[in-house]
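// run 5 | inverse folding | seed 20
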């Protein structure tokens, strides 16, 4: 039975990132946040009370609420797919934090289960829906750089253990710079170029262990389970290519760098891990660059949940879709495999390139 009015939302996972999601989602008129669940009951209660959510408790209690149509999965990466399947089995749509899963089969099975049930899966990062990246994507789509040909992306930092009080999971299987930060950059490339077809890569690990640098556990040593630097060459179905590096082992931070060049110019995009920021456009034969002022939404994380909710009500396609996330996951897995094997790896999945959002898209409006 079709529904109308604001879309009921439940949240699984009351960790650090939930605060940003809840602050935004409770402010969107088209969403009605009804429940926060967490294995830590006190943490679920605290977040529900902090953001005026009427109920909190266990995952089973959340999944039993008929009014909840979308469940926002903010659990650890290792259980994203498992929790997603539980949500689908309960007859609800999924918004997942990135990555969608840790392996191709788990991601594909989740999407297949949703399709069989007539449900939808969407996935972070939704930063790609922000005014910054969308303004650049609209410029590329209207031909400001001519035919897009190449891209360079860069994320270089010393490592999150310096500031994160519990950073172990960021150096474990399913994370590291590739799977933690890679989705922001690769998702932007897929929105700009479409499907990737092949990847070559190398990787390294600077230290076998690291130490927590802040918080009550400062000085605690923990193992590094994954490479902390990847350098990749990504080839796309349309003939484009991208050189991308993702690193937790650079003393000189360089992050948020995305540059796309075409037959008529080059555009430097804002940080893909933000929702705002102007772009800079350089044209051949033009002495000075142009600034493309960002226009559109800067409301932040949770915007993708809203896009999913409006798509459900309107019968449209969501832009931060599970299909895009699954293809991005396949690219990241191919980078990991190519770096480990030393040979290029084919990316066998494909996805339609999402259309840019109109600059008038407004999360603060009531539309459903």
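// decoded
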């Amino acid at each position: 039975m079709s529904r109308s009015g604001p879309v009921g939302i439940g949240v699984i996972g009351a960790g650090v990132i939930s605060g940003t999601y809840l602050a935004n989602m409770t402010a969107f008129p088209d969403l009605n946040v009804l429940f926060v669940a967490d294995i830590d009951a006190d943490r679920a209660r605290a977040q529900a009370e902090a953001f005026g959510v009427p109920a909190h408790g266990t995952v089973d209690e959340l999944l039993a609420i008929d009014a909840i149509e979308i469940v926002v999965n903010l659990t650890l990466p290792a259980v994203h797919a498992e929790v997603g399947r539980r949500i689908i089995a309960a007859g609800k749509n999924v918004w997942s934090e990135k990555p969608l899963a840790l392996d191709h089969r788990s991601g594909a099975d989740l999407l297949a289960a949703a399709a069989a049930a007539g449900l939808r899966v969407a996935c972070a990062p939704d930063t790609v829906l922000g005014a910054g990246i969308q303004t650049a994507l609209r410029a590329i789509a209207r031909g400001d750089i001519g035919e897009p040909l190449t891209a360079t992306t860069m994320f270089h930092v010393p490592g999150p253990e310096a500031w994160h009080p519990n950073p172990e999971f960021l150096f474990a299987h399913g994370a590291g710079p590739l799977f933690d930060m890679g989705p922001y950059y690769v998702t932007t490339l897929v929105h700009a170029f479409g499907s990737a077809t092949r990847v070559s890569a190398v990787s390294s690990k600077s230290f076998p262990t690291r130490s927590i640098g802040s918080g009550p556990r400062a000085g605690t040593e923990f193992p590094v389970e994954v490479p902390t630097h990847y350098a990749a060459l990504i080839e796309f179905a349309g003939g484009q290519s991208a050189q991308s590096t993702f690193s937790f082992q650079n003393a000189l931070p360089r992050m948020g760098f995305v540059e796309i060049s075409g037959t008529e110019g080059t555009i430097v995009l804002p940080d893909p891990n933000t929702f705002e920021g102007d772009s800079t456009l350089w044209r051949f034969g033009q002495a000075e660059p142009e600034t493309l002022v960002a226009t559109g939404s800067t409301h932040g994380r949770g915007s993708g949940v809203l896009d999913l909710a409006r798509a459900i009500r309107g019968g449209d396609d969501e832009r931060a879709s599970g299909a895009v996330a699954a293809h991005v996951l396949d690219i990241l897995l191919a980078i990991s495999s190519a770096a480990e094997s030393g040979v290029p790896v084919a990316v066998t999945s494909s996805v339609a390139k999402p259309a840019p959002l109109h600059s008038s898209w407004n999360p603060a409006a009531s539309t459903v």
